[in-house]
Design goal:
Structural class: alpha/beta
CATH topology: Rossmann fold
Oligomer: single chain
Radius of gyration: 18 Å
Low-confidence stretches: none
Strand content: 5-15%
CATH superfamily: NAD(P)-binding Rossmann-like Domain
CATH architecture: 3-Layer(aba) Sandwich
Helix content: 40-55%
Number of helices: 10
Largest sheet: 7 strands, parallel
Number of domains: 1
Length: about 270
């Protein structure tokens, strides 16, 4: 096997599905996958937004190509329709990025009952059911040397109690992390790896309320050990690694993309400066 970067991270000939791929982290990942040569199918609730992003990506002169359509992971019917549409477009799915998700913020004492059902049905149940529905396509793409890849989008909030009144969201992402380990264990013999990324603060529609401005980003960066919010290349590089030949032996990992937040513990045991 060649050790050249062009071989370790090349995705030429691979077909990928990115849910929630029209905005935010999904959009960053889709561009990274297209840049590595993949054919990327982008699906989210807004078909026109997916088609527009696909057109943008195809106009960049990157080696891969993109196509977009509407699909909803929030209901059983939506998941099954999305899986059926993917099956119409390809007989093999090398990469599944489960990115579709929503958030909800409300203070303790006011966090509504329905916030839990809505968050868990999309962020956890929908993610699991879509993966399950796409297993035949993933298995069709898998080989011993080059497994099919599932990449779930978790969150640093799924690892550490740092959410800002996002109780149902944080708990859903903790569930995504454990589901990743469970599926990794159960799908390895089918030649499918399952990993998750656990992002910290990245600029997206979901986080615009907090870091949509330069001031907000600077404020958020104070809580990140590396001193900045995430950038698109941080997501793109992680996906290229996990989905390329270089990541073929990684499964069951929760890859932190949070500038060190996941292991940050202010102060020390003996209250002395290091």
């Amino acid at each position: 096997m060649s050790m050249r970067p062009s071989d370790l991270f090349d995705l030429t000939g691979k077909v990928a599905l990115v849910t929630g791929g029209a905005t935010g982290i999904g959009r960053m990942a889709a561009e990274g996958l297209v840049a590595a040569g993949a054919r990327v199918i982008i699906a989210s609730r807004k078909a026109d937004a997916c088609e527009a992003v696909a057109a943008e990506l195809n106009a960049m002169g990157l080696p891969g190509k993109a196509e977009g359509f509407g699909g909803d992971v929030a209901t059983k019917e939506g998941v099954e329709a999305l899986a059926a549409e993917v099956a119409k477009r390809t007989g093999k799915l090398h990469i599944l990025m489960n990115n579709a998700g929503r958030t909800w913020g409300a203070p303790i004492g006011q966090h509504p009952y329905e916030a839990w059902e809505k968050l868990l049905s999309l962020n956890v149940t929908g993610m699991f059911h879509l993966t399950q529905c796409l297993l035949p396509l993933l298995e069709a793409a898998a080989t011993d040397d080059d497994p099919a890849r599932v990449v779930n989008v978790g969150s640093v909030m799924g690892d550490i109690p740092k959410g800002t009144a996002t109780y149902s969201y944080a708990v859903s992402k903790g569930a995504v992390h454990h589901m990743t380990r469970v599926l990794s264990n159960d799908l390895a013999h089918r030649r499918i790896t399952v990993n998750a990324i656990a992002p910290g603060p990245f600029v997206s529609k979901m986080t615009a309320f907090a870091i949509g401005t330069e001031e907000g980003q600077a404020e958020s960066a104070k809580g990140v050990p590396l001193g900045r919010v995430g950038r698109p290349e941080d997501i793109a590089g992680a996906l290229q690694y996990l989905c390329g030949r270089g990541g073929a032996y990684v499964s069951g990992a929760i890859l932190p993309l949070s500038g060190g937040m996941q292991s940050n513990a202010p102060g020390n045991l003996f209250n002395k400066d290091l």
